[in-house]
Amino acid sequence: MIFDLLFASTGLNIGLTVGTLILLFGFITLENRFIKKREDSLKKGIIILSYVISFILFIAATGFILYIWEYDLLTYLSGVGTDLVDILNASIGRLISSAVVFFIAMLVLRISKITLKRIEKKEGPNQRRKRTVSRVIRSIIKYTVSIASIIIVLAIWGVNVGPALAGLGILGLVVGLGAQKLINDIIAGFFIVFEHHFDVGDKVEVKGFKGEVIDIGLKTTKIKNWKNEIMILANGEIASLINFSKDLSVATIDFGISYQEDMQKTMDILNLELPKLRQTYTEIVEDPICLGVTNLNSSSVDMRVICKTLNEQHYGVERAIRKRIKELLDENGIEIPFPQVVVHQSKD
User: Fold this and answer.
1) Residue boundaries of the structural domains of the chain
2) What is the CATH T-level fold of the domain 249-331, as seen in this structure?
3) For 130, what's the count of Cα atoms within 13 Å in the CB-facing half-sphere?
4) Alpha carbon of 32 to those of 25, 65, 167: distances in Å?
5) What is the pLDDT of residues 28-76, one digit of tens each?
6) Architecture of the domain made up of 187-243
């Protein structure tokens, strides 16, 4: 009797309600801070347990507040339960059909994802091409299956999707007229993928930015350079592009020798010794060869050495060949001249 009298006071009810809410939110706040600080070190079981305790306290606080305000929760729950049972009995067929549609959609997405990933991982001569086309197909399947599933479920629940589809068509036309740039990017993306301009993993240069293609979408392309900077380009903006991954790379090394040195002797030494680098550097595909004289400079005779390497592996090979050329010229007493200036003084 005393307990009922205490809770009959409206002021006391308000105070208990506010106090309960403060305690509840205070506990949840402290719990979140504790978990965030130790999220990496805590075990998953402890984190899940803390969330379960929070949920139980929330239910208990809600029930306590409803009790002190003398709300008949049992009657409400029984009415809701009865209504829910009636709704389920009337809509059991639709629910099962909707569940089947979503199950089939998830199954199609799952199978397509696994199949396309296996195609990506399968070794072959066109690995990059497979990876590129696979990602585009996955994206198209994902959006197509999702939209189709939503339309089918709406039709199951009695929604007339005909006017909705017609409205989407009109809306698409209106949006298309105002989004020509977007359409241009998508069309350009189709041409990039299906005309094989470049693939994921290719080294390209666009607008002075050189790097590796890490992603190709129907709207944008992402390129990452050696400094891990990522450039995102709209496909419609790619008017001109250099693809370095279509063929082998060529290492080019230019150097100069003195005019007093024997050019043929220098060529013979280099053509004899430089091919031995191929045993050390697996990136070299064809033996380095000295082509001969490329320029008669003011203080030196310029010569050139070239060799073919694996794609985009010529940078390190060029450094190694330059080092070896310097060693060979020093060993054979062949001078690498400094810039010289000859001054003539006229006689009075």
Assistant:
1) 2-71, 187-243, 249-331
2) Alpha-Beta Plaits (3.30.70)
3) 13
4) 10, 24, 46
5) 777 777 766 665 566 666 767 777 787 788 778 777 777 776 666 666 6
6) Roll (2.30)
